[in-house]
Amino acid sequence: MAGHSKWANIQHRKGRQDAKRGKVFTKLIKEVTVAAKLGGGDVGSNPRLRLAIEKAKAESMPKDNIENAIKRGTGQLEGVVYEECRYEGYGIGGAAVMVDCLTDNKQRTVADVRHAFSKYGGNMGTDGCVAFQFKHCGQLLFAPGTSEDALIEAALEAGAEDVAPNEDGSIEVITAPYEFSNVQEALEKAGFKAEFGEVTMKALNETVLDGDDAERMQKLLDALDSLDDVQEVYTSAALET
To answer: Which pLDDT value is given to residue 1?
Structure first.
């Protein structure tokens, strides 16, 4: 068993994401552009682009926006050239933090990220200092009360890597990063609809924080996530709210 409060944590994080819809389109357009730049504009041979487009469609992004982002990535349209960069560090209680960015100015981005870490009680570390504590994977979370045996059978048949029941009754299904959409679709056809799903960097071990420590950690995560160049923030912190 894993994840003593996984359900509450995911619901809390999803609620905060839903409240930040203003930045979502900007982040998704950047991801589509970079995915097309790195792997080409054909979704059939570019799994990263396929996933980026699926995420964009899930947020009801207009088709023209997606197509223009692809064209900017492949050079058919002029646009800003973005670079990928990742910064790592530690938050409250030593919780691991990874920050993925897409930027047209690395000097500005690293300064902004370092400032956020230091202002809110964290410490920016060196490359690789916490990356080993995370696994790149797809994650689907099913509500407490879901039939565990039936879900395990369906998930393994769909090609999932692992199924992990949590102490709170929720169940996680873990997939390879670019098999996420295929597994999710197969499970929905089998009658299992996830309450939450994403391709993420999943912490291998959690650092449980509560009270003031949880509040301070949330402020740090929010500060990082609010930066214009930041695409994703991953952490090993499990916040007790």
So the answer is: 37
Per-residue model confidence (pLDDT) at position 24: 84
> Is 181 in contact with 16 (CB distance < 8 Å)?
no
Q: What is the dihedral of CA 154, 11, 238, 30, to 10 degrees?
A: 90
What does pLDDT average to in each consecutive run of 10 residues of the chain (241 residues)?
56 58 82 95 93 91 94 92 95 98 96 98 96 96 94 96 91 94 95 92 93 95 95 93 65
Can you give the C-alpha Rg of the chain in angstroms? Answer: 18
Whole-angstrom CA distances from 181 to 43, 58, 65, 160 are 13, 12, 22, 11
| Distance between start and end Cα atoms, the chain | 21
Tell me how far CA of residue 30 lies from CA of 55, 136, 234, in angstroms: 12, 20, 18
Write out the DSSP string of 107-154. HHHHHHHHHHHHHTT-EE--TTTTGGGEEEEEEEEE-TTS-HHHHHHH
Provide the whole-model pTM: 0.85
The C-alpha atoms of residue 204 and residue 231 are separated, in whole angstroms, by 21
In DSSP terms, which residues pair with 203 in a beta bridge?
134
Q: Which two tokens stand for residue 186?
A: 């197969």
Asked if 237 and 217 touch (Cβ cutoff 8 Å), the reply is yes
Judge contact between 47 and 178, C-beta under 8 A: yes
* pLDDT for res 3: 44
Q: How far apart are CA 57 and CA 55, in angstroms?
A: 5
